[in-house]
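Session log. Operator J.P. requested a structure for one protein chain; no other inputs attached. Running the standard single-chain path with token output.
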Amino acid sequence: MAVALSRAGAAVLCADPDLAAAERTATLVRQGRVAAWAVQGAVDDEVDVALLAARARDLGGADLLVVAGGGAATTTLVAAVGAGRTVVLDPGEVDADVVLARLRSG
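Structure written below.
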């Protein structure tokens, strides 16, 4: 998902409970000459959510937040980050074309 969004011109903040996974994704994005940062964090951890939101603000804010999953943790993350637009993916949904189409349709 992050790589597809970067191909559309988006700089990406990659967050994952597994920092190595976030770093791998950020590296793939950077290979396309697009800015990317990696952070370790889980959307169901209040401290991680606060740190993720702070990092997004440090980078100038978020125009778009793409979150896998849903529920109360996602609601907290969305509020904390304060992105201009948010896309919440269903569990297991990874089709970047679907997300990009959703973004284009408004």
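Operator note: The mean pLDDT is 83.
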